[in-house]
Amino acid sequence: MESSAQYQLLYHRLKKEILADVYPIGSVLPSENDLCAAASLSRSTVRQALSQLETEGYITKQKGKGSIVKSKSRSLNLLSFHGFSAMVDKTKMSTLSVQEPTFMPWPEDFPFELSELEKGAGCIHFARVRSVARRPVMYELTFVPNLNLPRFVRQFKLNQSFFEFLAKEYQLEITGMEQQIWAVAANSIHTQHLQVESNTPLLKINRKYHSNRSHLHLYSILYCDTEKYALGNTSGVINQSL
Amino acid sequence: MESSAQYQLLYHRLKKEILADVYPIGSVLPSENDLCAAASLSRSTVRQALSQLETEGYITKQKGKGSIVKSKSRSLNLLSFHGFSAMVDKTKMSTLSVQEPTFMPWPEDFPFELSELEKGAGCIHFARVRSVARRPVMYELTFVPNLNLPRFVRQFKLNQSFFEFLAKEYQLEITGMEQQIWAVAANSIHTQHLQVESNTPLLKINRKYHSNRSHLHLYSILYCDTEKYALGNTSGVINQSL
DNA sequence: CAGTGGTCTAGACCACTTT
DNA sequence: AAGTGGTCTAGACCACTGG
After folding, report:
1. Rounded Cα–Cα distance for residues A173 and A143 (Å)
2. Which terminal residue of chain A, N or C, has fewer Cβ atoms less than 10 Å from its own Cβ?
3. Residue B159: band (very low, low, confident or very high) from pLDDT cuts 50, 70, 90
4. Spatial distance between the Cα atoms of A81 and A132, rounded to a whole number of angstroms
């Protein structure tokens, strides 16, 4: 099933251990020599595994120090909320359920193309409103094909991280994404959920997520009020060595 | 100046040759063994150089075939225009100059923080309107600090690619970017350049580009009419092996 | 100073593609 | 069969960080 290359096995093991807080964020992985000895591998092979973790954003390496855990999820350069001066304090974010997860057929006017497999399976749909400092900023509709995700409807709680839930419950990892972005005028649905005036300019984002299950995609439609908080991201290597 | 590691030297040489069409898009680089022999390097070192070209999106590798040139610029996951069904035909894109490159002090209300070095240097500013199928879709204001970019004002032609000009003329490469995105209502300036009604929702994007000159940044402010063409991008590895 | 990651070598065997 | 990239080993020396 999985690639049986030694560096891939080590990569997956370390990633799992990072996810499971064996190595929490900020901690240092065992040194390359220790990993070599423990796994009976050459240093090149160990470095190949660490290199993959590094390019995917899980760790950073520092000469003389070690490999430091940076993040618990692949850095995908997703847009996220930023204040005008600093990043929004995560403790001030809250989530409101608008539609609990339910089984349904795909909407007639679904904006993404679906495979026959996805069409036949129907979908699980839920919707949330995200707020920052009690001000609603994002209305999010998510659609997941009903394909081998047992207990999803019962177990997923809307106030948790969707991606972390998928990783823990199904070992499902988001590996990539396509998105399209528009500026649109708020209609009656948006005015209600985002508490804005009619015709307020909103950011509309359609997203198709790709995962490590090659035929399983997730879909989201986002509406964002950017009056107080812009959406921002960073891509590429911003801090180069020298 | 440059890193003197052998793999970095080879990486830079190959990148320059790709840029200069020594290896055009679609062509195959010399095999790893040939590169080893030509540069008197071990295969690991050659592979490290190729690996960097690969993760930056210049080449793809295929077992049994070789290293195939994919792109002439680092893939930065920039947002670009997409039609509703297919990518916009590049032959239908045109550029209109609104403001020719000129020296000026930084605007009072410049939305990015500037270093003392940048402040003192003043800036070069130009503005363009991009059209797709003769319909204006983007109004773009660009600001470049006046730091060691000789002949810029005289030589840069607004209808060429800004990034390719910088690479050819100054060996300046864009390595990363930060951006913030809003939905805003069109004001009188936008209605004029983008030929839209007042208060039409527009995408506003502020961008700060980072380059291989560690203290040189470029700045752009974009206003996009997304009524006909959305902005889209792709990030992460969409097509995994298997 | 000992330990870390960064760079590099000279081999080896494998799976895949093309001729 | 010959050539390609994919994986892997067992060394080596270096520059950097810490006590």
Report:
1. 16
2. N
3. confident
4. 9
Integer Rg of chain B from CA: 20
Taking CB atoms and an 8 Å limit, are A236 and B82 in contact across chains?
Answer: no
Angle, vertex CA B203, rays to CA B200 and CA B207, nearest 5: 150
Q: CB of residue B40 closer than 7 A to nucleic acid strand C?
A: yes
> How far does B102 lie from chain A, in Å, by closest CA?
28
pLDDT in tens, B100-149: 999 999 999 999 999 999 999 999 999 999 999 899 999 999 999 999 99
CA of A67 to C1' of D4 (A): 33
CB-CB under 8 Å, B240 with A214? yes
pTM: 0.88
Average pLDDT, chain B: 90
- Spatial distance from the CA of B107 to the C1' of C3 (Å): 51
Contacts of A16 (CB under 8 A, 6+ apart): none
Protein residue closest to C3, using CA and C1': A64
Q: Would you state the pLDDT for residue A213?
A: 85
Name all domains of chain A by residue range, CATH numbers in brackets. Answer: 3-69 (1.10.10.10), 84-241 (3.40.1410.10)
Q: Which residues of B153-183 are buried (b: 16+ CB within 10 A; e: fewer)?
A: eeebebeeebbeebbeebebbbbbbbbbbbb
Of all nucleotides, the one whose C1′ comes closest to residue B30's CA is D4
| CA atoms lying within 13 Å on the CB side of residue B56 | 20
Query: Percentage of chain A surpassing pLDDT 70?
Result: 93
pLDDT in tens, A126-146: 999 999 889 999 999 999 999
List the structure tokens of A19: 């996810």
Q: How distant is C1' of D15 from CA of A29, in Å?
A: 21
Q: Which amino acid is at A221?
A: I
> Which one has a higher pLDDT value, A51 or B160?
A51
Which residue minimizes Cα–C1' distance to C2? A64
- Kindly determine whether residue B240 and residue A183, on different chains, have CB atoms separated by under 8 Å: no
